[in-house]
Prior knowledge:
The complex is a heterodimer.
Chain A: H1 10-23, E1 28-34, H2 35-43, H3 46-49, E2 54-61, H4 63-66, H5 69-81, E3 85-88, H6 102-107, E4 112-114, H7 118-127, E5 133-139, H8 144-156, E6 162-169, H9 171-180, E7 188-192, H10 193-199, H11 205-211, E8 215-218, H12 222-238, E9 243-245, H13 257-266, E10 267-274, E11 278-287, H14 296-299, H15 315-319, H16 351-358, H17 361-370
Parallel strand pairs in A: 1-2, 1-7, 3-4, 3-5, 5-6, 7-8, 8-9
Antiparallel strand pairs in A: 6-11, 10-11
Chain B: E1 5-15, E2 20-27, E3 30-35, E4 47-51, E5 54-58, H1 61-86
Antiparallel strand pairs in B: 1-2, 1-4, 2-3, 4-5
The structure holds iron/sulfur cluster.
Amino acid sequence: MKFLSEYRDPEVVARYLERLRATVRHPWTIMEVCGGQTHSLVKNGILDMLPKEITMVHGPGCPVCVTPLELIDKAIWLAEEKGVILCSFGDMLRVPGSKKSLLEAKADGADIRILYSPLEAVRIAQENPEREVVFFAVGFETTAPANALSVVHARRMGLTNYSILVSHVLVPPAIEAIMDDPDTRVNAFLAAGHVCTIMGTHEYEPLAQRYKVPIVVTGFEPVDLMQGILMAVQQLEKGEARVEIQYTRMVRPEGNLNARKLIEEVFEPTDRWWRGIASIPQSGYRLRDEYAAWDAERKFAVDLPAAQEEASCIAGDIMKGIKKPHECPNFGTRCKPETPLGAPMVSSEGACAAYYHFSNLINEMDQVATE
Amino acid sequence: MCLAIPGKVLSIDTQYDGRVRMARVSFGGIVKEASLEMVPHAKVGDYVLVHVGVAISVVDEEEAQRTFTYLREMGELDELREINDYLPDEKGNG
Lengths: 371, 94
Ligand code: SF4
């Protein structure tokens, strides 16, 4: 496929690797923020290829993984107790809530539908005027325009039976939280290409300056990732800390102004709880008061008891880049994709699941265990 | 979840009472609908980046080449720098 397969060319990857070997002199820890990049790095074997000086750690950029337990419980409550048609992206379905997952609730008879786009949920609301339809609006900045559009469409059409359950998170406050952690080891960031397609780079300039970290806005294919890593290492070796864009075919410095305007109109920043990490100030979006009628949390007064996380899950340390998945005692033993204890084992973009599926670590661990 | 992939705009029409421009976009033969509200300048034949049913960027075809010329440009820059190291400086004592 054009603009996709050429960025998977092993020969180009090899040339970048050669250049990287010639450039790197010191040990560096680089964090890719986005779960899509984690998935690609592991799946394409790039982690095993990199010069030993470079350690990649995996950031909190999987919206499915950081969606709080409470919100999953709320989504299930809406479907089971309120009888709404609950619509969601497929990735959310298997994430364990405190009692069950959306998938289990669906098996128990709740009307839960998997959609490709929130715009389809608006159509379902239009076709089912006698039912309430709720879309589970998770995501980073990338997904915010689509979720905002669904609300704008519903309002334009005068649909009062549509609302969204918002769990939006933002990347720059997460970078701040990671850099403010005294245990952080991160020397440079690969910022998420698709987030910056929407938002541009203006929020990242002050971060690069304040924390003296290079931030390279990077794409998702192997060649993109290799180039992004090379650009970061070049800056690190020269002692620079700038924002650079590797993913220039998709990202303009100002982002997508139409999308930014739409987000601004519909959402406002709010504090958000990141599952497994912490509550981060002003790190998410909620609907503005003008759109309260389409806000599921305000429409259906939900009051559920606080949910308990699995205590032995170290997802927080993993998503801050302090630990790796195989350092978790549950990894591959009690915790597997079929029986996840924490969210990073569920989504294919979660670091634990990525390691479990693609890395040869499991085999190595098995060997060590039998030796 | 944050997957967004580039596809080619095959045709454009309006929906939602004529107020929303929607495109039929081909992803290597698989055709899906996408809203063009975030990229109003997109036209038939363009490649657009689509995320959960919304086109969020038009691929810059010139920039798309840069990933492949980057290494060569880097190499040329380095050569220039190396040549400069051997050239006599302005005072003529090099
Ligand atoms: S392996 Fe499982 S229990 Fe351990 S951190 Fe990952 S998700 Fe949590």
